[in-house]
């Protein structure tokens, strides 16, 4: 919700600037400006004014639609505001600023904690218990030494994922239950009484942070990696993430 309000605020502020010009362009001028700014755009079929001052609807390729400022400097397409001179997606840039980059700001209390060796280094992963890529990754992850792994269960692959995630989270030893299932296919014991609210919080957090792939990895220096990594690649990421801290 905060992300939506922030994006809307950015858009409204931009449209306010666009509407401030004293002269309204005509449709032909907008067509020319957009064509110049976006030379790869298919033939423009129609340009019409919208109820928003300074904003024009541009129809192209038959039924495709984007919205443009009078000068063609800004377009609104697929929900994103783009500056055409630089080709920067302003919505995406602002969204990236809202993303969590500080590892300690992750909701670590809602993760399963797995310590290997000294546990001195840290990483997080967003995983689904029925994700085969996650199972393959878990096998490689066992060989990584001296790391604390925070496993956030995000059951996104169907009802059975929710059931297994709940049973794993609510077991007496969630870390063991997780590894038993992922590595040996030993199903977790059915939890009769359990507060599964952490799973809902994990799903909400993943949505807010645009985490849609399992596994998705998060390292202590704030870097992210959607998808799996081999053990040596994980080791390299962990070493790189630890290097800045060692120099402070």
Report what the structure shows:
The structure is a single chain. The protein has 248 residues and is α+β, with helices and mostly antiparallel strands. It has two domains: 2-98, no CATH class; 103-247, Glutaredoxin, CATH 3.40.30. The protein is built from eight helices and eleven strands. The strands form two sheets. Strands 1-2-3-4-5-6 form a six-stranded antiparallel β-sheet. Helix 1 packs antiparallel against helix 3 (90-98). The chain is elongated, with a radius of gyration of 24 Å. The model is unreliable at 1-23 (pLDDT under 50).
CATH architecture of the largest domain: 3-Layer(aba) Sandwich
Order of helices and strands: HHEEEEEEHEEHEHHHEEH
Query: What structural class do helix, strand and pairing data support?
Result: alpha+beta
Strand order of the largest sheet: 1-2-3-4-5-6
Radius of gyration, rounded?
Answer: 24 Å
Number of domains: 2
Measured between the Cα atoms of the first and last residue, the distance is 36 Å
Total E-strand runs = 11
The number of helical segments is: 8
Which assembly state applies to the chains in this document?
Answer: single chain
CATH domain class of the largest domain = Alpha Beta
